[in-house]
Amino acid sequence: MRTLILILVLLVLALLSLLVGVADLSMALISISRIPRTAALILAGVGMSISGVIMQQMTQNKFVAPTTAGTLEAAKMGLLIFLIFIPTAGSGIKMLLAFLFTFVASLIFLSIVRKIRYRSVVFVPLVGLMFGGIIGSISTFFAVRLNIVQDTNAWMMADFSGILQGRYELIYLSLPAILITYLYANKFTVVGMGEDFSKNLGLNYNAIMNIGLFCVSLTVSAVVITAGAIPFLGLIVPNVVSLLFGDNLKKSLPLVALSGAIFLLLCDIAGRLVIYPYEVPIGVTVSIIGAIIFLLLIIRKR
Amino acid sequence: MKGVKRNFLIVILLLLAVAGLFLFYNMGSNWEFALRLRGIKVAAILVVACCVAYSSVAFQTLTNNRILTPSIMGFESVYLLIQTIIVFLYGDQTFRVLSSLDNFLLSVLGMIGFAFLLYILIYKKGKDNLYLLLLVGIILGTLFNSLSSFMQLLIDPNDYFIVQGKMFATFNKVNRDLLWPSTVVLVLLLVVGFRTSRYLDVLALGRDQAINLGLNYNRMVQLFLVIIAILVSISTALVGPITFLGLLVTNLTYELFKTHRHVVIIAACCLITAVTLLSGQFVMERLFHLSIPVSAIINLVGGFYFIYLLLRVRKL
């Protein structure tokens, strides 16, 4: 029932997102610009919130997400390296580079988390944010040398206005990752309970861990490349859903996916209307709304 | 204790040597001018070194770990937001509208105000969880960063260089107007800070032990948080953000001085920070001709050191 309502809301919003804009509607406009934009928004929303869920399950920590684990920063770094050293290579290489960086960063982050003795819920994301800051400072160093700090900031600010047919298809790479996540959802939860525990239950710990990281890295790098870094999404959507609907992953995953897409569509439509006919990049709207929701969450939590 | 004394001597000698090198190397014909210019820089470096050293050591003791620095609490984001707003409003008129002293005061007040709001917010709610405080600070920082980068998108690329100049710490722009007030405040705070440093020794044992030993834990934590906020604000407003400097120097200090008495550690850390900054500045100025901001290098080195620390230690 809930799922049905959410699907309906999503459809309405998607339709709205197709209709909002300055130019007069025409078939060409819709197929070249509006449909790609709406599709990218839905995929990014689903992908980022699902990645958040996987990371939270694997670290058994509600506050771990691409924003708080250095994942976004790593994707940025991969993109920056691409733009600096091999800007003429194809978008496949770009994707591969961003993917590799996020994957390695997630591996390092997980190995750090495993070492933390003082497992306060808040301490793990704190370390993750420091980790992200450091990756960021390394990228900044290169950006300063080449005098492209302002450009890098512009690339990274999440924005769906530049999405056109033929320039966004990489984001479909996140689909298989989302599918795998759905099939493996319960296994990720078990893996989060520790190596010994999961081996005891007959799971191949390392394999599952790697599959999880693979999915997260694939999704995050695809989204960062097509739209830019969307903060907070993987953090708040899963948390709000689990507050409202509980923690049974098989049941709540579709809800998380739908709410993620709805939230992103809402933010995008809001950003397009606030200073109509111009638009506010979605990175700004998401981080304002996201930060407020997240603060409410952690202050109310205990 | 003998080893500590010897190490102290070595660090002091090192500081003198580096400072001498910095002041007198390749002076040219107009030595008075060069000396005055360099003297101000050395003074600024010493002020920033003391601010960073005290605030980082105290902060790490409060949070009971060695991989955090106070600047992650959102101070630098507030600073950058203020600078971005100023440039956004005034564009290339920025320097005419706002003197450097005005800008300094505005930034310091902005950051201290932010910190106090944060403290009040958390402690009024009856939540004395320090980590929660940090997380809220960081989240607000992320929010401010998004706002700044949105405004930075809209700023004219020529004006943007004013903002970019503020994004990286530099000792080249410090002038005497700023140096005096910050030195006075610093000295006052250090007097209080060193007098109360024995409480830090107790706080280092952890919350429960500290309370058990009769310390008013929350009061003490609040006192040190206030000191830390003011110190970080001064150093950030004076030269700009150097996020990972504190991380680098505190860990170096703990490696060199194997003691847990805060008087010793903080004093040593001030010296080591000054040596690090002076030599960094010297290398950047004379060898690389200021092509890279010194803070970018320090953040890079500090960053790699941090990752090394995380991977090397078995437990955190």
Taking the sheet with the most strands of chain B, its summary is: none
Order of helices and strands of chain A: HHHHHHHHHHHH
Shape of chain A: globular
Number of strands of chain B: 0
Level-2 CATH architecture of chain B? Orthogonal Bundle
CATH secondary-structure class of chain B: Mainly Alpha
The class by helix and strand makeup of chain A works out as mainly alpha
Residue windows where pLDDT falls under 50 for at least 5 positions of chain A: none
Low-pLDDT sequence parts of chain B: none
The CATH fourth-level homologous superfamily of chain B: ABC transporter involved in vitamin B12 uptake, BtuC
> Which class of secondary structure composition applies to the elements of chain B?
mainly alpha
Total beta-strand segments of chain A: 0
What is the domain total for the residues of chain B?
Answer: 1
Give the termini distance of chain A in whole angstroms: 31 Å
SS strand fraction of chain A: under 5%
Largest β sheet strand count, sense and barrel closure of chain A:
none
Largest inter-chain contact set:
A-B, 47 and 50 residues
Strand content of chain B: under 5%
Task: Explain what the structure shows.
The complex is a heterodimer of chains A (302) and B (316). Helices cover 75% and strands 0% of the residues of chain A. Chain A is mostly helical. The mean pLDDT of chain A is 85. Chain B has 316 residues and is mostly helical. Chain B has a single domain (2-312), classed as ABC transporter involved in vitamin B12 uptake, BtuC. Chain B is built from 14 helices and no strands. Chain B has helices spanning 2-24, 31-63, 75-90, 94-97, 100-124, 130-154, 157-167, 176-195, 197-203, 207-212, 217-239, 245-256, 262-287, 294-312. The longest helix of chain B has 33 residues, at 31-63. Chain B is globular, with a radius of gyration of 20 Å.
